[in-house]
């Protein structure tokens, strides 16, 4: 057996060395390519993330704007238009489309990373919907002051908000739907009892004969009691009066629009809505409403006015939906002082539909008072309210929450912007 010479061993080591170097170069190249690709992806991801942030910025800006003025014209070009805005890393652009009937704004927000808006390094789009919802339509019943339910067999539908505690002294009271928000204590007194078929949110104690079929939460969300901006109606009302005036609605089934006679003048109600403003006076109203209408009787000075009298039925025109707000009809009756509802004749019912709101807390006179007519009558109410109904009707009072008011609200109410749809593309 012959041993390899030293020269032969050196000759064999060279190919091995070259082979190992080739492997190392290949590994190095792969590592370099992987690192470069990882860096590129990380950089691109950072740019995409920045683009998404830029799109979010303009959405936040428009939501902030809407939140600063609840009772304003959210749908005007001036309110919605935005020029492309450059921030430190790129541009934010938003385009909008307003639905003034159902009170929402759909949007498409685009964030473009880089200094050239037409040739961005990264681009992200967010589509969504902002829905404007008024507390005046979304709560079936609201009480600003400490409130006691004394009626037996009282039934409340929809969300309920008691802003300063709630005492129930009536028997067999029920809340259907809910949730119920009580800022303060909720309690029964005497032989009173209530069943809440939904969730309860309360900041105070719970005591007495109270049954909650849902969750009993010992906190309430951050709720701000709504108020009416009197200057809004000066700016946006279609008709303004300063003396006691009658407001009579009418609708012919062969007509495409409804009308309203204010005093001695008749107006056609446009599809965009109609606002009637009475300043320091009493408005007396009734009729069949076709269209979206708000009546506001506000006392801005002096010691009189700011009242509304409903002296006959006040309901909607749409066949099959005379009681509930719909694509054609919606009504709000707002006042700063009490409203009087004239009772029907003996054996008859008074029909009332819409949002009924008294924008003043405190005194017993500032409520909804059933007066005149016959006590041997009844009340059928469809809508929302924020005060007690004072007065008796032997045929009973049926109080029904109208869910259609949230979908098809009347014009001119204070509304909060809610982001109800959000999709990143």
In short:
The protein has about 425 residues and is α/β, with parallel strands linked by helices. It is built from five helices and 31 strands. The protein has an eight-stranded mixed beta sheet with strand order 19-18-17-21-23-25-27-29, with no helix packed on it.
Tags for this model:
425 residues, alpha/beta, Glycoprotein, Type 4 Pilin, 2 domains, 8-stranded mixed beta sheet, 7-stranded parallel beta sheet, 5 helices, 31 strands, elongated
3D structure, described in words:
The protein is 19% helix and 41% strand. By secondary structure, the protein is α/β, with parallel strands linked by helices. The chain has 2 domains: 20-134 and 417-424, Glycoprotein, Type 4 Pilin (2-Layer Sandwich); 227-408, no CATH class. β17 (245-250) and β18 form a beta hairpin. The longest helix is centred in the N-terminal third of the chain and has 63 residues, at 6-68. The protein is elongated, with a radius of gyration of 33 Å. It starts with 5 loop residues before the first helix and ends with a strand.
Give the helix/strand layout:
Elements: H1 6-68, H2 77-80, E1 85-86, E2 90-99, E3 104-113, E4 122-133, H3 135-138, E5 139-143, E6 147-149, E7 155-162, E8 166-168, E9 173-182, E10 186-188, E11 194-197, E12 200-202, E13 206-207, E14 210-212, E15 216-217, H4 230-236, E16 239-241, E17 245-250, E18 259-262, E19 265-268, E20 274-279, E21 282-289, E22 292-298, E23 307-316, E24 330-335, E25 339-342, E26 349-358, E27 368-371, E28 378-385, E29 389-390, E30 397-401, H5 404-407, E31 416-424
Parallel strand pairs: 5-7, 6-8, 7-9, 8-10, 9-11, 9-12, 10-13, 11-14, 12-15, 16-20, 17-21, 20-22, 21-23, 22-24, 23-25, 24-26, 25-27, 26-28, 27-29, 28-30
Antiparallel strand pairs: 1-2, 2-3, 3-4, 4-31, 17-18, 18-19
